[in-house]
Amino acid sequence: MKKEYRVVAIPGDGIGPEITKVGIEVINKAVEKYDTKINWVEMDAGGCAIDKFGEPLPAKTLEECKKSDAVFLGAVGGWKWDTLPGNKRPEKALLGLRQGLDLFCNLRPAKVFEELKDASPLKNSIVDKGIDILVVRELTGGIYFGEKGRKGEGEDLVGYDVMQYSKKEVKRIAKVAFEAAMKRNKKLTSVEKANVLEVSRVWREAILEIAPEYPEVELNHMYVDNAAMQLVRAPEQFDVIVTGNMFGDILSDEASIITGSIGMLASASLRDDNFGMYEPIHGSAPDIANQNKANPIAQVLSGAMMLRYSFGMNEAADDIENAVNKVLKEGFRTGDIYSEGKVSLGTKEMGEAILKYL
Ligand SMILES: NC(=O)C1=CN([C@@H]2O[C@H](COP(=O)(O)OP(=O)(O)OC[C@H]3O[C@@H](n4cnc5c(N)ncnc54)[C@H](O)[C@@H]3O)[C@@H](O)[C@H]2O)C=CC1
Ligand SMILES: CC(C)CC(=O)C(=O)O
Ligand SMILES: [Mg+2]
User: Fold this and answer.
1) Is residue 212 annotated as involved in ligand binding?
2) pLDDT of amino acid 1
3) Annotated binding residue 291
């Protein structure tokens, strides 16, 4: 009997609709071979929802997500909505989805593709040592969700955002990171700023309390400023990085570019069952939106993560990843990963190339 899943697709803004279209086509073809069908439900969130309904995350969108097996999201945001107050901005939709669906764990794998070594801004001598990092980012706490506001007036006006973590929240994400390290090279780096921040000292204490459960994992602690530097100096030293919401956001963008392009990096936002939201790590790239220039590979690889983590379809996920590898091997490139002598493709054409190799 045909297996069926219900997935909410949220294309969002900017390049979101262009790349999710490609992602959906690739996923549909990949699962077909395994007698599986995805029933897609398209919903609005972000700037487009503000335009249509006056709010970034309509209740109906969140409701539909809760009724589904997974969510496949493009990106939200854009210049048009940049002057709106914080709680009315498109990005609020993303935060609302993450919190509303309890997606506390964001996995962001950053791996250099053999074929894209030249696209990395790092020297070949560094890239050749290997870059294969899994950033495990806490996603529903920390400074993005702490108390925020303004007080005072004129020159005394103060803006504030509180960064706080409970031990419970840290331990929950730490467990995922230690488990991931056990399946990889058994090395975990916890990144914080414990030399200055109390929240980071609690973070470190919680990590140290979990560590004895994983004696095989080599654990080290690193301050975030040093981690940012070490990522470009010697990225091969990292296996799994576990960190808070904002540090993980920043470090994963940095990790993406050392592998070639932010247009290549997928992510899975998970809770403690099989449910997840899958989205590229990049934003809506308004500078290249509606020009057929965006790299759809991060979106496509997020689809592979969805098949792997939410549906246990490892073979179909492998098929997608292999198709992407083949396309790169054949020399096909979008603008962000283009180098001399390669074949330059638009978003749509890159999607067609991936479909051909599936
Ligand atoms: N998950 C989400 O929905 C996110 C949304 N945003 C929002 O996106 C908007 C733009 O944010 P930025 O800071 O400019 O970050 P961005 O990630 O959208 O773009 C940064 C740079 O990377 C390029 N880029 C991004 N994705 C690409 C792709 N697939 N192919 C080729 N080039 C790509 C862009 O053209 C731009 O030059 C903002 O409104 C921001 O708040 C930002 C990050 C995540
Ligand atoms: C709008 C931000 C909260 C999203 C972001 O930059 C991210 O999750 O990478
Ligand atoms: Mg980000």
Assistant:
1) no
2) 82
3) yes
Query: What pTM, to 2 d.p., does this model score?
Result: 0.97
Structural domain contains residue 297? yes
Q: What is the spatial distance between Cα 230 and Cα 226, in angstroms, rounded to a whole number?
A: 6
With tokens 């990085």, the residue in question is 241
> What is the model's pLDDT at position 319?
98
* Segments of the chain with pLDDT less than 50: none
Q: Is 148 a catalytic residue?
A: no
Give the amino acid at 102: D
Residue 193 annotated among the catalytic residues of the structure: yes
Range of the domain at 222: 121-258
Question: Would you say residue 335 lies in a domain?
Answer: yes
Tokens of 148: 């925020």
ipTM: 0.99
Tokens linked to 88:
């009315």
Distances (CA, A) of 277 to 175, 184, 253: 20, 23, 19
- Domain holding 238: CATH number? 3.40.718.10
Helices (H), the chain: 16-32, 47-53, 59-66, 91-100, 124-127, 167-183, 198-210, 224-233, 245-258, 297-309, 314-329, 347-356
Number of domains in the chain: 2
Residue 281 Cβ < 6 Å to ligand 2: yes
